[in-house]
Design a protein that fits this description.
By secondary structure, the protein is mainly α. The chain has five helices and no strands.
Length: 131
């Protein structure tokens, strides 16, 4: 059996995405948990109550922290992908047509974050499955 080593470009990509997304989701989690940055209004527009803001803020915070722990990175990326993926779906469906929350920026940002997080899930899974 041969030892598996992660290629340098792959390792750099994993760490770069982990740092970028970790910082981004730590910020998002902070705004959700503190109710700043219009998050209370956003979650009110969804209509599911503020408990959902706290839940997604907690998922975002835990996921962001896990991105910096190599053995748990895959699970953190999965949690973040689910969180931001749901946000993208909500923006495209529930909030579609809302002049504030259904705007193109409110749709494009979660879609981009979901894509980047999905790439990290794939990279971390490929890295994990080869160990």
């Amino acid at each position: 059996m041969t030892a598996y080593t992660v290629s340098k470009p792959r390792s750099v990509a994993i760490w770069a995405l982990s740092i970028l997304l970790g910082i981004a989701f730590a910020y998002v989690a902070t705004t959700k948990l503190t109710g700043t940055g219009n998050t209370t209004e956003y979650f009110a527009a969804i209509g599911w109550g503020q408990w959902f803001r706290y839940l997604t803020g907690l998922v975002d915070l835990v996921g962001a922290v896990l991105l910096f722990v190599p053995l748990w990175r895959f699970y953190g990326a999965i949690a973040l992908f689910c969180s931001v993926g749901l946000g993208a779906v909500i923006s495209l469906t529930v909030l579609h047509g809302d002049p504030t929350w259904g705007s193109p920026v409110m749709i494009v940002v979660p879609v981009i974050l979901a894509f980047l997080t999905g790439v990290l899930v794939w990279l971390a899974h490929k890295n994990r499955s080869s160990l």
